[in-house]
Write a structure and sequence with these properties.
Blueprint lengths: L1 E3 L3 E3 L12 E5 H7 L10 E6 L14 E3 L3 E5 L12 E8 H4 L3 E3 L12 E5 H7 L10 E6 L15 E3 L3 E5 L11 E8 L3
Antiparallel strand pairs: 1-10, 2-7, 3-6, 4-7, 5-6, 8-13, 9-12, 10-13, 11-12
The structure holds calcium ion (2 copies).
The site of one calcium ion (CA) has 8 residues, from strand 9 and strand 13.
Protein name: WxxW domain-containing protein
GO cellular component, one term: extracellular region
Keywords: Glycoprotein, Secreted, Signal
């Protein structure tokens, strides 16, 4: 089975306009046009804050539009007489594949066996024994049984640790028959690192 570190990721903050003129227009069509390739096609969420880092509600502005399909607009003409929009910035939550389009897998590691208290394949130990072979921030971990390559998720065993950032631990005492299989692990890293 594969465990994912970060199912999604945020883009950087975008601030393409300011409220001089008709208002603050941070619309997706203009952001796409001006930042090709930097925002996914169907953002999962959008966050908006003022450029000084305050929440939208703190400004008292009437917001004309705010949604993940169209982006954000605050029109000065929608505000109380004499007041205008704050300057806002926006960012978008995108699927992980967008942020790291290519995943490069390490080789398989198997440094422990389940004799003793269990099968310990911790990332820090694997790093210590295999310097330079595992990237700084793995995105995925894949764990299978050593002998027949069965994905860990399908073995019916329960795992104490199973995470791209920590590694894998199967404790014998957590199993019905008091014995873990022997597992091997590999890590999925961004190819560009
Ligand atoms: Ca702005
Ligand atoms: Ca093992």
């Amino acid at each position: 089975g594969r465990q994912l570190a970060l199912p999604q990721c945020w883009t950087k903050w975008f601030n393409r306009d300011d409220p001089s003129g008709s208002g603050d227009w941070e619309t997706l069509d203009l952001l796409y046009h001006e930042n090709p390739g930097m925002i996914c096609n169907r953002p999962l969420r959008m966050q908006v804050r003022t450029t000084s880092g305050h929440s939208v509600s703190s400004t008292g502005n009437v917001i004309t539009m705010t949604d993940t399909r169209n982006g954000f607009v605050c029109k000065n003409s929608d505000q109380q007489p004499g007041s205008e929009c704050a300057n806002y910035e926006v960012r978008f939550l995108c699927p992980q594949e967008f942020c790291h389009p290519k995943v490069c897998w390490t080789r398989w590691f198997d440094q422990d066996s389940p004799s003793g208290i269990g099968d310990f394949e911790l990332l820090c130990d694997l790093r210590a024994e295999n310097p330079g072979q595992i990237c700084e921030s793995p995105l995925y971990i894949e764990v299978v049984t050593k002998h027949n390559h069965m994905p860990a998720d399908f073995t019916g065993q329960s795992f104490h640790i199973y995470s791209p950032t920590e590694g894998f631990v199967c404790r014998n005492r957590d199993q019905k028959n008091r014995r873990c299989y022997n597992y091997k692990v590999r890590y999925g890293c961004p190819c560009d690192v």
